[in-house]
């Protein structure tokens, strides 16, 4: 018997109902609901694994869960597994969504659980045990942005690495060139790593208001960070600096053809795949260690530096930076735009210059001529 696409489990003769089959049916129904709400397959799989993990940890089926089970699970994730504040909050969100679905009378799961097992579902993630989201920035405080001096030294060393590989006679000069362009692209358009990795040559186009940017005045970002597990967000980012055009044009016209024809991906590998995030992170760490930079830098630091330079370094409007970065809320953009030491130093120099100029300028004589 079926009711609203839910399977109704009825025990036959003396056979006891199978809780494993019931859990599988609930999870399948929840997956259908999430697909209907346009959540991505990866998000659905992750949430399913989390529910099964909670079942294994607690030793109870979902209709047996209590607030105490949830407290134990999340405190273990935070205190023992040392998961971040944001990760635990995402776990709680997934469990809460599952309980909301199972408790919803529209789907009839509670009624079936009562008939089969004599218990019903309950919400186990409430304001009593949920991690608070008291501030917009939950990032780890040790992460920081690049200063302009650090960026210049890093890019110079990445370019030098290409020549060092060539001079040594080793293979890998083309990959080193690709990595150098990848780092500059992360900063040049304020891209996330996954957005940069999936760029293709067709994603670049002209900006009629900036013909001097040639065929690279606009980049179409098609792999933007999705909202709440839905499809990838798409945006257009305008090219701000001329040097980024020179870098990407030189790579596409002279570097990519060395991988063979045709090549559509901007950052491929010799095996035909896309350059991996782990590879880029390893290369970046090697360059940072050689330069002796203080800790706290990662691939996302390029994006932080881009936003900071746009707003505090060059005076662009916050709304422009928000659109460039693909942020839904301006409050998110503000997280990236804390004044850098370079900006603070420049601001202090401008203030000193104004003070000195005012001191050198003779004061007008306000006395009246009789």
Automatic annotation (TrEMBL):
Residues 141-349 form the Tyr recombinase domain. InterPro entries: DNA_brk_join_enz (IPR011010), Integrase-like_cat_sf (IPR013762), Integrase_catalytic (IPR002104), Integrase_recombinase_N (IPR010998), Tyrosine_recombinase_XerCD (IPR050090). One of its GO terms (biological process) is DNA integration. GO terms for molecular function: DNA binding. Keywords: DNA recombination, DNA-binding. It comes from the Bacteria. Belongs to the 'phage' integrase family. This is Site-specific integrase. It comes from Labedella populi.
């Amino acid at each position: 018997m079926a009711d609203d696409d839910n399977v109704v489990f009825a025990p036959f003769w003396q056979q006891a109902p199978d809780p494993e089959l019931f859990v599988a049916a609930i999870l399948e129904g929840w997956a259908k609901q999430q697909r209907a709400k346009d959540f991505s397959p990866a998000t659905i799989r992750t949430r399913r694994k989390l529910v099964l993990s909670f079942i294994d940890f607690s030793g109870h089926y979902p209709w047996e869960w209590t607030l105490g089970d949830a407290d134990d699970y999340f405190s273990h994730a935070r205190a023992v597994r040392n998961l971040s504040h944001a990760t635990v909050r995402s776990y709680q969100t997934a469990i809460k969504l599952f309980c909301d679905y199972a408790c919803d009378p529209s789907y009839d799961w509670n009624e079936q659980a009562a008939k089969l097992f004599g218990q019903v579902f309950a919400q186990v993630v409430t304001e009593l045990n949920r991690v608070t989201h008291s501030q917009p920035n939950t990032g780890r405080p040790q992460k920081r942005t690049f200063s302009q001096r650090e960026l210049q030294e890093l890019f110079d060393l990445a370019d030098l690495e290409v020549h060092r590989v060539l001079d040594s006679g080793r293979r890998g000069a083309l990959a080193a060139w690709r990595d150098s362009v990848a780092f500059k692209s992360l900063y040049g358009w304020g891209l996330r790593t996954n957005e940069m990795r999936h760029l293709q040559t067709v994603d670049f186009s002209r900006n009629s208001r900036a013909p001097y940017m040639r065929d690279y005045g606009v980049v179409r970002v098609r792999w933007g960070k999705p909202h709440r597990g839905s499809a990838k967000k798409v945006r257009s980012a305008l090219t701000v600096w001329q040097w980024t055009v020179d870098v990407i044009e030189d790579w596409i016209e002279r570097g990519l053809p060395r991988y063979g024809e045709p090549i559509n991906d901007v950052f491929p590998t010799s095996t035909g795949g896309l350059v991996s995030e782990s590879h880029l992170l390893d290369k970046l760490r090697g360059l940072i260690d050689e330069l002796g930079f203080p800790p706290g830098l990662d691939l996302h630091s390029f994006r932080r530096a881009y936003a900071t330079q746009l707003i505090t370094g060059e005076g662009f409007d916050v709304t422009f930076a928000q659109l460039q970065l693909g942020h839904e809320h301006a409050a998110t953009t503000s997280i990236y735009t804390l004044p850098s030491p370079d900006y603070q130093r420049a601001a202090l120099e401008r203030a000193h210059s104004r003070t000195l100029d005012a001191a050198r300028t003779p004061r007008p004589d306000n006395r009246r001529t009789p």
